[in-house]
């Protein structure tokens, strides 16, 4: 039988990641040491009290039934956490769980958009942002994030006719991949812009606990008027190392939350109860481990960014996130060319910036997922390979 799958799938490409993986497998097979800094999954352990909550809950057979909805005590835990951590008052009907921010962002366009709508997306962009717009059958409009603007958008560069058609704008700080944070004035500007054009704000907040040099990492909902205009995706993946558990929340405007809940009720029977219990333990438990972990990420950031600078690669210090974003060395014609050569010569795997959109060309992203000793060794390997100065 000739099976034809949806033409819509041709929208998605696996290109560069498949090529990187193939090359990595070949290197490993050949016995070469590999330093894999391409994937943003934390290598730190999950706190014991969170593991125990999951294990205890998994011992009760009743907890294997369909959850159907968020446990009231989990919603209370999110509500209390927002008050304690960010000083933000929300009610439990302004919260819904999602199976990771990835899932929430992928589906938010379906909950909000009609075909004539425009979605404003950052370039470079975390890839699922575009998926949300595509699934919502909306038109994507990209606003540029440039290094000279500290990777913040220039709202005055968004044409008025686009702004008028925009249904929602995706924003995210601290931002993966560019590793920049946003000042308070940015959020005030964002809120004024969204208010003027009646645009919903969707703030992806995955890294408020991984922010460097003593800067405060907060919530979009702390700003006056935020809840009237939008929602925030609040992920437990990175703060609590729960990436595989798929637990995140959308918090904020009730109308948006209700739309997400209605949509989700059509394809999901609720989050596995032991994971809900683990989320409660994370949110109500001690947070000193989260702070200590941020300090460890900062040490890695210092070793990686400082180390690369010391061997002649002039890269910016990350301000937040578990990544570093670096301009490729002189003489290379593209991020992909540099990544492939770096991998061949040194075994170091990073992500080419163009995987995040056209404005990512000329950059690469490193994930801070190796211990400092291994990072130091890796920097030495890069230095000895001569790749940084091979084309200049
Ligand atoms: C900016 C950003 N948003 C969302 C996600 C996905 O988070 P989750 O694990 O909650 O799906 C990530 C994960 O790397 C991310 O970097």
Question: How would you describe what is shown here?
Answer:
The chain is of the alpha/beta class and 392 residues long. The protein folds into 2 domains: 138 residues, Alpha-Beta Complex (Aspartate Aminotransferase, domain 1), CATH 3.90.1150; 237 residues, 3-Layer(aba) Sandwich (Aspartate Aminotransferase, domain 2). It is built from 13 helices and 12 strands. A 7-stranded mixed beta sheet has the order 2-8-7-6-5-3-4, with helices on both faces. A 3-stranded antiparallel beta sheet has the order 9-12-11. Helix 4 runs parallel beside helix 5 and helix 11 packs parallel to helix 13. The chain is globular. The chain starts with 14 loop residues before the first helix and ends in a 7-residue tail after the last helix. Pyridoxal-5'-phosphate binds next to helix 4.
Helix and strand layout, with pairings?
Blueprint: H1 15-29, E1 35-36, H2 48-58, H3 72-86, E2 95-98, H4 101-112, E3 118-123, H5 128-135, E4 139-144, H6 160-165, E5 166-171, H7 184-197, E6 200-205, H8 226-229, E7 230-235, E8 248-252, H9 254-264, H10 273-284, H11 288-310, E9 323-327, H12 335-346, E10 348-349, E11 351-352, E12 363-367, H13 372-385
Parallel strand pairs: 1-10, 3-4, 3-5, 5-6, 6-7
Antiparallel strand pairs: 2-8, 7-8, 9-12, 11-12
The structure holds pyridoxal-5'-phosphate.
């Amino acid at each position: 039988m000739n099976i034809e799958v949806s033409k819509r799938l041709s929208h998605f490409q696996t290109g560069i990641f498949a090529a990187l993986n193939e090359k990595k497998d070949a290197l490993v097979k050949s016995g070469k040491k590999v330093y894999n800094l391409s994937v943003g999954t934390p290598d730190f352990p999950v706190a014991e009290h969170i593991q125990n909550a999951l294990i205890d809950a998994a011992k009760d057979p009743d907890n294997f039934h369909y959850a159907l909805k968020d446990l009231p005590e989990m919603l209370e835990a999110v509500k209390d956490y927002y008050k304690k951590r960010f000083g933000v008052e929300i009610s439990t009907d302004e919260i819904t769980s999602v199976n990771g921010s990835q899932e929430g962002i992928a589906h938010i366009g379906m909950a909000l958009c009609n075909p004539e709508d425009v979605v404003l997306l950052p370039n470079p962009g975390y890839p699922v942002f575009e998926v949300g717009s595509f699934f919502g059958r909306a038109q994507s409009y990209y606003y540029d994030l440039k290094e000279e603007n500290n990777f913040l958008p220039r709202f005055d560069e968004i044409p008025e006719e686009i702004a008028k058609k925009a249904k929602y704008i995706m924003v995210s700080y601290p931002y993966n991949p560019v590793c920049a944070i946003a000042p308070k004035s940015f959020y005030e500007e964002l809120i004024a812009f969204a208010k003027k054009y009646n645009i919903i704000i969707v703030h992806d907040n995955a890294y408020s606990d991984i922010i460097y040099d003593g800067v405060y990492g907060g919530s979009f909902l702390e700003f006056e008027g935020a809840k009237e205009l939008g929602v925030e995706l609040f992920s437990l993946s990175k703060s609590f190392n729960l990436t595989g558990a798929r637990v995140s929340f959308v918090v904020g405007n009730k109308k948006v939350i209700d739309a997400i809940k209605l949509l989700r009720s059509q394809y999901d029977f609720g989050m596995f109860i032991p994971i809900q219990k683990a989320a409660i333990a994370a949110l109500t438990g001690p947070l000193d481990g989260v702070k200590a972990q941020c300090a460890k990420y900062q040490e890695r950031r210092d070793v990686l960014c400082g180390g690369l600078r010391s061997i002649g690669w002039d890269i910016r210090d990350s301000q937040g996130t578990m990544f570093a974003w670096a301009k490729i060395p002189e003489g290379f014609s593209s991020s992909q060319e540099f990544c492939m050569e770096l991998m061949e010569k040194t075994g170091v795997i990073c992500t080419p910036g163009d995987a995040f959109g056209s404005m990512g060309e000329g950059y690469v992203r490193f994930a801070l997922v190796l211990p400092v000793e291994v990072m130091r060794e890796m920097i030495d390997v890069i230095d000895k390979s001569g790749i940084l100065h091979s084309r200049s």
